[in-house]
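Retro notes, structure queue

What went well: the backlog is down to a handful. What didn't: a couple of records were mislabeled last round, so from now on we paste the full input next to the output in the thread. Example, using GTP cyclohydrolase 1 from Acetobacter tropicalis:
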Amino acid sequence: MLELGMSSDSLPENDNRPSRTEAEQAVRTLLRWAGDDPTREGLHDTPSRVVRAYEEFFEGYETDPRSLLERTFSEVEGYDEIVLLRDIRFESHCEHHLAPIIGRAHVAYLPRSRVVGISKLARVVDAFARRLQIQERLTAQIANTINDVLEPHGVAVIIESSHECMTTRGVHRPGVSMVTSSMLGVFRTNSDTRRELMAMLNRPSACEY
Ligand SMILES: [Zn+2]
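Corresponding output:
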């Protein structure tokens, strides 16, 4: 049974983190495992490049997602309708194959009294996406964090993505997308609120303006 959104919210213990040299050595081992020669010219700098890429792919471990939501605004003239940020592109990696998961997240909440800067919602998505993930947990962690910190009337997170471990290996099924959602508070209990959210999601995008 998965403990969605529980254990890996907190930053992992880093006491046993290997050195950069050890990480580069591990890449050389994988290059040899693939059947190539890590000493040939074209692969000479590959271990250091891969380690730098890993720093970027997994920089979410360095971020506390809750702290991103601490600064809020309460002067909202009584605004008490859904706030939706949609089509937040993200890149993550599946924890089973280290293969990319590329997709879009839609994040909505119904504020109680405080709103947060919209870029912060996108940064929460990145803070969890830039870790080793499964999509179900990614979805739940984003929703639970917003719910815990902002204490809104409700939170909805919908994620659509393509998993390269499914498109480029294994069953080789390109064009398949996976959709997950987490509905909390009024988005779970009130079908009118959920319908309103779906209507907002189905509107044409305003991105070109
Ligand atoms: Zn996978």
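Agreed that this is the format going forward. Reviewer comment attached to the example: The chain is about 35% helix and 20% strand.
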